[in-house]
Amino acid sequence: MRVLALLLCLATPAQAETLSQELHSNGITATTQRLASATTPEDLFALGALRFLGGIESALQARWQMGVSDSMMMLPIMRLPIPENPNPAPFDPALVTTIFTDMSTRMDAAREPLLKIPAGADFGVEIAFADVWFDINANATLDTGEDAAAVLGPILLGWQWDQRDPATPLPVVRFDAADAVWLLAYTHLLQGISDTVIAYDPTAATTRMVDTRKALGLMNHTSTEDEFDFNDSFGDFADIASVVTGALNQPPNKDRLTAAHTHFLAMVAENRRFWPLVNAETDNTMEWIPNEDQQSALGIPLPPGTGNTWLAVLDDAESLLKGDLLIPYWRSDANHGVNLGQMFTDPAPIDLIGWIQGYSAVPYIAQGRTVSGQSWTAFEQLMTGDALLFTVYLN
């Protein structure tokens, strides 16, 4: 009998580990490698999603290695919170360009499996947020501050993150065919931003800023708590301003801006595909972005009319990118404005003083209808103060 029982145990397969559990055990990189030959819709989506997350993980690792834990609020990914590195490598002024060059390449790779998902495919991939983590210090171990909740929670939930009960279980999301299109849109958005940053490569301006700090003896500068230090209160702003203005006021890489322009337009196009797919759903199962008859697994309520209102914002964005609508300029009349599309297709250095006075704006001033801002105002009113949060959520 004991032999028979043993044989029965051996003949009964162990319960397969879910994708979510595999992520928790092995992390993003190892799970991505295991899915490299994906063929089913579920695995193709998982591979695309993990390559997307891998791009974020790689950026966080690059920041951690050089001890860049301070938030850079102007750039996505650079503002995500990460733990302190007790022994960082020397700072490389090319860090930002390196991160976004890698991000651009990884977004291309993330789209590749997503585009192979057959039209009309019906699938679901369940992911528990508690199982997702970023190997920020690259030691293949989940450490404090590396879980997705710590890294992404404040960005996804905004002020609601600080007010949530820490004992509340993290959500489980069932990603479906509509969400694959949402993710496609997001890859285009991040690649468009990445290519724009690369086009105005900030490496030279950052090198100049670092060299200046060294010359002034500020690289290891600290001040006591009981003394006022003007450098502490204004110096960081001056450093960042010097990098931003220096990066913008140089001949940009036209090919990168052309690519960015294409990606931003593709982001709008994928959003237009996404919302009809969401609205056609009849289930209500752990939704990522719900329609008006569903609930979000994140607990984020979407007001009625969210999809149409957001699409109106994107319609204006597309018209601006194409030059069909113009951006109002403070020194021109109501019948003239800035052609944003031309700034991508025929780029020039951006001299901020010249744009304020007007001499740098003149080549891009055109006659036509300017954007009214009504669609954005309607979106802000619908979101009752959380418009920027929902912009990140909806893309």
Structural class: mainly alpha
Low-pLDDT parts are 1-14
Pattern of helices and strands: HHHHEHHEHHHHHEEHHEHH
Helical residue percent band? 40-55%
- CA distance, first residue to last residue: 61 Å
Main pleated sheet: 3 strands, antiparallel
Query: How many individual β-strands?
Result: 5
Outline type: globular
Task: Quickly count the helices.
Answer: 15
Mean pLDDT: 90
Strand percentage lies at: under 5%
Question: If you compute it from the alpha carbons, what radius of gyration comes out, rounded to the nearest whole angstrom?
Answer: 24 Å
Main sheet: which strands, in order across? Answer: 3-4-5
Note down, in words, how this protein is organized.
This protein has 395 residues and is mainly alpha-helical. 54% of the residues lie in helices and 5% in strands. It is built from 15 helices and five strands. The strands form two sheets. It has a three-stranded antiparallel beta sheet with strand order 3-4-5, with no helix packed on it. Strands 1-2 form a two-stranded antiparallel sheet. Strand 3 (327-328) and strand 4 form a beta hairpin. Helix 8 (203-215) runs antiparallel to helix 9. The model is unreliable at 1-14 (pLDDT under 50).
Secondary structure blueprint with pairings:
Elements: H1 2-11, H2 19-34, H3 41-65, H4 95-114, E1 124-128, H5 148-157, H6 159-163, E2 172-176, H7 177-199, H8 203-215, H9 230-248, H10 254-279, H11 306-322, E3 327-328, E4 336-338, H12 340-345, H13 352-357, E5 365-367, H14 374-383, H15 387-394
Antiparallel strand pairs: 1-2, 3-4, 4-5
Helix pairs in contact: 2-3, 3-4, 3-7, 4-7, 7-10, 8-9, 10-11, 11-14
